[in-house]
Amino acid sequence: PISFGFNCALGPKDMRQHVEELAHLADTHVSAHPNAGLPNAFGEYDETPADMVNHLREWAQSGFLNIVGGCCGTTPDHIRAFAEAMDGMPPRAVPEIERKLRLSGLEAFNVGADALFVNVGERTNVTGSRAFAKMILESRFDDALAVARQQVENGAQVIDVNMDEGLLDAVHAMTTFLKLIAAEPDIARVPVMIDSSKWEVIEAGLKCVSGKPIVNSISMKEGEEPFLEQARKCMDYGAAVLVMAFDEKGQGDSK
Questions:
Q1: Residue 89 exposed, middle or buried by CB count within 10 Å (0-12, 13-18, 19+)
Q2: pTM for the model
Q3: pLDDT 10s digit of each residue in the chain, 255 long?
Q4: DSSP state letters, 103-166
Q5: Staple partner for 246: which of 13, 154, 209, 219, CB 3.0–4.6 Å?
C-alpha cells in the first residue's frame, strides 16, 4: 500500500487536496496519517480527537482512504476516535488506472494509445550535432543550455542527452549538463532521455535527473546477466527503458 503522511507545515485544506489527488492517481491502497494540527509556539499539538475526526470522516466519505492512522501529536485517544469514526465506513475502491507510458520532468508526460507522435529533441546529442559537441568540448555549458531551451520552446516533449564522444569524460559531461538542466525549470519541465552506449554514463545520469526519464538503451550484447542487472537498476531508479534487439551474436533478425 501507498502510505501518505502529512508534513507538519500543512493545514487541513492542503492536506485534503493532496490526499484527494493521490486517491485518484494511485492504483493501490492509500493510507493517511495526519498530525494533530500544526505545532504551536511550545512545539505541542492542539488538534483534539474530535477536530481531527471531522476531517478524516469527510475524506473517508469522499472515497479517498483505505487506511487511517496518526502521526505527530496524536495520542491513544486520537487513534480510538479514528477507529470509531471509520467503523462501518466503506474503504476507497482502488481504481483501475489506464496503462500508459508515464514519464516526467517537472511536469507529467503520458503517452497512451490516443497519443500522436512524440517529439524527441536530439540537438543535445554530441554524436548528432557538431555544434553541440563543440560547445561541450569547450565547456560552453551556457550555450549548450540555450540549445536545450530552444528544443523545448520548439515543441520537443523529451530531451535526448548524449555525451559519447571520444575526447570527452562522458560521465562528467553528462552529470554536469543534467545538473544544470535541473536548475532551469523551463527546460527541466520535460523528461530527459539519457542516451549512451556505456552503462556507467547512464547510471551517472540517472543519479542526477529529476522526474521519470528514459534510458536509451540497454541490450543483451554483454549477456543475459548484465542485461538483467541493468534492467533491475533502471527499475530501482524509476526510469523507462528502450531495449535494443541485440545479444552476444548480434542484432535480432527474426521474431
A1: middle
A2: 0.75
A3: 555 544 445 666 777 888 898 898 888 899 888 888 888 899 899 999 998 999 899 999 999 999 999 888 999 999 999 999 999 999 999 988 888 999 999 999 999 888 889 999 999 999 999 999 999 999 999 999 999 999 999 999 999 999 999 999 999 999 999 999 999 999 999 999 999 999 999 999 999 998 999 999 999 999 999 999 999 999 999 999 999 988 888 887 776
A4: EESSSEEEE-TT-----EE-TTBTTT-HHHHHHHHTT-HHHHHHHHHHHHHTT-SEEEEE---T
A5: 219
